[in-house]
Design goal:
One of its GO terms (biological process) is NAD+ biosynthetic process. The chain has about 260 residues and is an alpha/beta fold. Helix content is about 35%, strand content about 25%. It has a 6-stranded parallel sheet with strand order 3-2-1-4-5-6, with helices on both faces.
Amino acid sequence: MKKKLALIGCGYLSQTIAQAVKSGSLAGYELVAVLGRNPIRTKQFADYFNCTPCTNIDAFMALKPEFVAEAASAVSVTDYCEKILAAGSHLIVLSTAAFADVALYQRAIAVALKNNTKIYIAGGATGGFNLLQTASFMSSTPIDVTITSKKSPGFIARTPFNKEGLMNITEPERVFSGTAKEIIDIFPYVFNVIYATSLASAGPKATKFNIDAVPNFAGDDYRIEVKGEQVALDLTIKSGDYAIAAWSVVSILNNAASPVVFM
């Protein structure tokens, strides 16, 4: 019997996940519902992917999905995560920056424990969480984690780190150096993947994070460097399309339904 899947959000990422169900890549799932804030867009999505359109969480959860995948916003995680977990659904989260609210994160964990449900943190554009946790378990002292992100000057120009002359640089230039916690405090909800990676490794306050503006750069490029007592990791993840975030959700769903799990 197929597992019931429901999606929060009607954008590109949710469309990618829904298409994986429609094409048979997620043959073990039936898409039963989509939750969106815009009734017209939500109905268009639902009509195309043959599921029920919902504009409120109660109607959405009444369909009793076994898995809910969030690909919308941190606000959606904040508003809905406890109700989803309490209703018996597993929750896959992309907007992990919502859990920078530590009280919310702890409440969500408590609700999941009480109701035998799970919170899956999607790897997005970095991934490698199993390796990061392995390195952490291997070390009796905290591991040292540094993440460096390459971004185009055009991307930086739309952030608090823009400065005069940035669009004319000819060499890479560092525009931010701090921690995962600091980047979320300064620029919330954009670097979800950095906060997720920090949760899987050294923690938000200890995970170092750098942003480099790189001329003529496109796409995403993340380098994760880990040093521990008995292990060292140097991971570089490059992607030309942010749909990699949606495919990381597809991977979680596939593992959850498969008799063989790749971690």
